[in-house]
Input
Amino acid sequence: MFYAFLKEGHHLYFDKEESFHCIKVLRHQAGDIILATDGKGAKYKAIILQADQNQCILEVTQVVEIEILKKPLVHIAISPTKNIDRLEWFLEKAVEIGVNQITLLTCKRSERKNVKEERFQKIAISAMKQSLRHWLPTLNTLTKCTEFFKIPFSNQNKYICHCQHHTLPLLKNIMQLNQDAIILIGPEGDFSNDEIEDAEKNGYVSVSLGNARLRTETAGIVAVHTFQMLNSFN
Amino acid sequence: MFYAFLKEGHHLYFDKEESFHCIKVLRHQAGDIILATDGKGAKYKAIILQADQNQCILEVTQVVEIEILKKPLVHIAISPTKNIDRLEWFLEKAVEIGVNQITLLTCKRSERKNVKEERFQKIAISAMKQSLRHWLPTLNTLTKCTEFFKIPFSNQNKYICHCQHHTLPLLKNIMQLNQDAIILIGPEGDFSNDEIEDAEKNGYVSVSLGNARLRTETAGIVAVHTFQMLNSFN
Output
């Protein structure tokens, strides 16, 4: 299955990467019929009109499937890890398990201040296709956590996972069901006390993910899976 | 914290790796007092008697903590992945989240027929220490799945996760609570029909992990976390 970054009328457009893969690697030609998703729930049969390895253009011949966006939605805001592989691993697994939005958070103790957004997007697309999903999560660019905390996000439950107290409630025990959630995951070394206070002032509830000390990327996966386990009953 | 592979009387023994790390990297000397676990629940204060970078020997001065082994226990039997990084990643995360035993399964479609057991052990030790656990999971060597299926494992619930039917029950919906479990995870390309039949004949219940097609290592993590979520209420 291919990913069309744009659909206009009956036309689908592939980006450079996907065009190259389709035309150069898999040697598809004009007239071939293939499967593609727009990352917004739809799966199409489409015929290749312009077999250009830089920008492939197709025409939809059939809507094969519309995947309804499964609610409630989960948004993970996570500090990038020092070792970029760990962050990329988190991204791939979060998409497979089912995340709707990811924001990268710059915290006081974050050791990484930049990420290659294009590569991040590529990993998400690849994980979406591999897991046979048709919704591409929204990936937000690096945001200072102090700024992120101030965004109101009405109608969403807000949680901050950290290890600063021994008596925190477990996320799984207090998560409100059937409601959208934002879950914050801190850097190696955790959120600072000031950050936790700031988050709490802005409506985030402090929670724990359990007694074991989880790495940042593991905590992110556990948060996504906890949300999905509690909210999906099919 | 250090890992002592052997405790005899009041003496602790470090393997080569841990000895090197303690003596050569961290420059500890005879007489220094450090923290160590035996991977069987105990955390000790111990004094270095023999500061040998090949085999460090210590004497226990205090039992700091005994971590009770949390029941029920979960055993994951999983096919090694073609890309070894994915298997190693599974191992690290499974230990962090809480697995008790791992067996590597050679299936018909497994593309990898060997793993470096020593490296596997090292990763498990490192993940145990990093996550502040004091129980080292049992790691079993590569076993043919047809042989593994025949092992009786009485008093354990047995599940095989696969994608061969659309109507399988979800693991989370049928898992029996407060009982030990063995969960099988297949290779890229899934278990073969023969393998599934064979497993079912030997008491394994076919289950699904959801609609998304998960990679082998993701399925392994989801299985461990599903078990822990359902069975721990603290």
